[in-house]
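Action item from last meeting closed. Structure (120 res):
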């Protein structure tokens, strides 16, 4: 499967394989929540706010850039994503994902369910 922008169609991920929670997940701080090459539909147990959103490894996302809304860019060592979506489509600037990359959490790129299209 791959993820693209709902508004302009720009591709936002490499080809990734959907996985289940059996295969996931590292919940260790600073480690990858999902392995490179895979995608996990968050079930809400770990990140309730992102229930049903696709979580990818940060190395599998493309054509994303940081939002210009500075209050979304908080974090200690990197983005914490606690203030809402902090990544936008590089083409049309639609808010498409939340980068969760800070030192006190597992790392993931979490896509906004309403703003992306999934192709299989
Ligand atoms: Zn777009």
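Sequence:
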């Amino acid at each position: 499967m791959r993820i693209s922008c709902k508004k302009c169609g720009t591709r936002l991920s490499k080809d990734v394989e959907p996985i289940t929670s059996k295969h996931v997940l590292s919940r260790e701080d600073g480690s990858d929540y999902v392995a490179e090459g895979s995608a996990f539909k968050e079930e809400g147990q770990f990140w309730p706010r992102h229930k049903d959103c696709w979580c990818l490894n940060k190395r599998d996302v493309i054509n994303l850039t940081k939002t210009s809304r500075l209050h979304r860019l908080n974090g200690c060592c990197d983005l914490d994503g606690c203030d809402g979506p902090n990544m936008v489509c590089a083409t049309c600037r639609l808010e498409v994902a939340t980068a969760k990359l800070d030192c006190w959490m597992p790392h993931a790129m979490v896509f906004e369910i309403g703003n992306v299209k999934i192709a299989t």
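Note appended to the action item: The chain has a mean pLDDT of 95.
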